[in-house]
UniProtKB/TrEMBL annotation:
It comes from Propionicimonas paludicola. Residues 652-733 form the Glycosyl hydrolase family 31 C-terminal domain. The keyword Metal-binding does not apply. This is Galactose mutarotase-like protein. Residues 164-245 form the Glycoside hydrolase family 31 N-terminal domain. Residues 292-640 form the Glycoside hydrolase family 31 TIM barrel domain. The keyword Iron-sulfur does not apply. Residues 1-23 are annotated as: Disordered. GO terms for biological process: carbohydrate metabolic process. Residues 16-121 form the 1,3-alpha-isomaltosidase-like N-terminal domain. InterPro entries: AIMA-like_N, Gal_mutarotase_sf_dom, GH, Glyco_hydro_31_C, Glyco_hydro_31_N_dom, Glyco_hydro_31_TIM, Glyco_hydro_b, Glycosyl_Hydrolase_31.
Amino acid sequence: MTMTASTAVPWHRPRGAEHPYANSADQLDPIVPVAGQPLRIGAVHPGTSRLELELRWSDATLPPLREPLTKVSQGNADSVALAGGDGHLEEAQAASLSTETAWTISLPALPEAAGEYRFVADDRASDWFELRPARWLPGGDDAVAGAGAKLVPGSVELLTPVGGAPVRARFVLALQPGDHLVGFGERFDAIDQAGRRFDSVVFEQYKSQGEFGRTYLPMPFAHVISADGSSWGFHVRTSRRVWFDAAASRPDQLLVEVELGAEAQVSVGLYDGSPTQVLTTFLNEVGRAAEQPDWVLRLWASSNEWNTQAIVTEQVARHHAEQIPLGVVVIEAWSDEQGFVVWRDSAYTPRTDGSVHSASDFTYPADGAWPDPAGMIADLHDQDIKLVLWQIPLLGHAETELTAETAAEVAYLAERGLAVREADGSPYRNRGWWFPKALMPDFTNPEARRWWQDRHRWLVRDLGVDGFKTDGGEHAWGADLRYADGRTGAENNNRYPVEYAAAFGELLESEGAAPITFSRAGYTGSQAHGLYWAGDENSTWTAFRHSLNAGITAAACGIVYWGWDIAGFSGPLPDPELYLRATAVSAFLPIMQYHSEFNHHRRPLRDRTPWNVGEAFGDEQVLPIFRSYAQLRERLVDYLARSARTAVRTDRPLLRGLFFDWPDDPQLWAHPHQFLCGDDLLVSPVTESGATEWTTWLPAGDWVDVWTGERLSGSAPVTRPVPLDVVPVYARAQAWPELAAVFGH
């Protein structure tokens, strides 16, 4: 927004930018005003020395109001506070959250009456805006369908504006004190969410997800596991925002609050049985993972610094020279980062009519970044290495000059109605801080979906690209956005990353390839679409623990193929101890991969390759220990592939929290990061710096220490030394004869 003092009309949006966790300077707070409670109203106007709020009520007995607002000299401090951390994206985030001159006023307790308000500055006034305070009114138990005996009688309430229909419902499901609640999608802050408050909204929290309690991949589904080992589960069947008070206010209650649309009823699925039975019933409703090819279980490697063919070739050769088996290379910084279909530095005739490319359209200068993409990909394939290319579901970028082709594509998307739209029909432009004001293709529109797929088709058909890293997907902000299938943003924004990954999976399958998508964002239904990683994280011990939480909780919701950036991707290099502890654990995760963010090739390099970490710290043990785990991973592929097939067939997670198998063992909750890798390997991550010994709780059964071959009895703690080359891993005794050779016995 660009305004001058002499011409500007005061600017206000009742819902603001609809950032889910921070207020815009120009919005209501809360967005749904509540009768009897205070309301903050914000506006933006530059230059003027006085801005006034004019408020009038439909009830003639209530006096009108005309009061000055207070200038907020620091701008939108609430939003700016969210822009932190270290990394190449921090400045972009901070800049996007700043505002022009802001004004605010706080009103005391609102009356239960409809009204309207506007802003006046000098001789300029805004439009009138409707104000309808709401109240929580009793609702009948029939407003929550499917909750059965778990619904606390009389707990249903409906948030109802004056003269309007309900906009939210809240209700209580009964718990037993001491119940554990696991799931809710990918959760970073804890595995057991009992005692916490949180919501389910797809959000790009740039790092520190665990500290903020936010996630890229939420689901309103969870397991409830009681102290006696009994269990059940529930699913709030909605794609709208849901808030949970998970035994935080009362240990015997789960308070659920749900946004409503035209529907007046909330649907809840209740599932009885063991955790596996609960998960099966849930996945029968929402879809489950398909088996992926075995190569996804090998080592993945990438860095945003690998932004030329020469660097990629060099790094691949170094893996070979160091005897580190490599299965997948991900190239992120390959395109012009405008349309994500053109290799940087290539020469071509722009297509400005909406038609799509083939490989013959491009030539590549010998001194360019990518002199021969087809040859590079063929060479990777000759070495039994697959290639995955980075993507983002945005087109155009407000901070760069668009190429002729991208400008034409932006116009094509807008003119043909193929983009997500605002309520007035205009194209939605990304309100987030990353690729600001770019357009988003509407994947619910069949024409848009086909066009987006066809733009990328040549990469698969002509070049042999094996998959796409479907990054992003969290950019739809706004309850009033419009999608081609008739849904609003409130209904479909959470579903956007599901459709985005599905569209790329369909493209790959249509060309005879496996549907390899590697996503960080998702929602209910994402189970059926590819692979996932934990998104942007720091290289810290805290982030290590939080990422393990994320993997175990995502798996409990049916995500089979999951990994993270070994020891984090952002900021200074992890020290050797953290790096090797993280590597050891990653060898037993469904996806083993390392990655690092762009740092302008400044020294010391921030590549998370073992040789770079070892050289940066002068530590000669890093490379050989990493090599040993990479080689172990290669030997584990057959076991992992069998286990993945079992997971898909039986819904017993590949990465499995121990409560799935021993729900009646209370000791497990004191060791939350232990997990099963398939049915037969129990992994006990070392998650604290300086550890020389580590205690694992072995659940019931007979076990074998895979490093020593020692046989152990379960239902007991076991403590063993943990030098940097050892992560405690125990095999089920009955499986040991088959697994012994994998571990060198």
